[in-house]
Amino acid sequence: MSEAWQESDSKVFADLGRIYTPNRDEIESTLLRLIPARADERFWCVDVGAGEGWLSQRVLQRFNGAQVIALDGSSAMLARARERLAPYGQRATVREFRLESDAWIAPLPGGVRCFLSSIVLHHLDPEARWTLFRNLYRRLEPGGALLMADLIAPSSETERDYAAEFWDAEVKRQSTEMTGSLLAFDRFDGDQWNWYRHPDPGDRPSRLLDQLKWLEEVGFVGVSAFWLRAGHAVFGGFKAKP
User: Cα–Cα distance between 185 and 117 in angstroms, integer?
Assistant: First the structure.
């Protein structure tokens, strides 16, 4: 992969992201299960780096009172998200944003119940990610949550080798199960998508332990890693109620 995310990368990931992401169904079910809301409750959810809008759509399907703001910086992804979320009418808002800027936070509605993000925040450097955690904590309503799925930096070369092999194996399995061939894996391998084998300076994942500490530092409680597979983790925390 190139150092800077490009529109061509967005198109590839929109088409093949379900195969490239280790067991995305488990990531989805874990994130949805942790959202602190009843199925019929009205609340705001913000999908940070929503891509084609698959996670936003699942939130809208599961929580019939939810209103979702789907944010992304790719025109290709935004177009797909608008098409996917159009059936939900005013319950879904799709907006362009720049992850590296905090200008998108101020216009958000007051009382956000949940911030979600899937395979996005590793594009920020550690200092910017810590600042984002703090800023999102401040915008959450009491009892709300910040829940993320992301690529995790290894703590040792042994872990790096393990994650690289496991990720390849997962993509091979999913390529065969979902398409009946290894063509998707061949594309994954040929494009050097496995960050553990081909580190890209444009990606800046951090260790899971460090990020859990950052979440606690800015005020989150109940901080934990809820799921981990092939170098990808679901983790986050909650804002305590008074």
Answer: 25
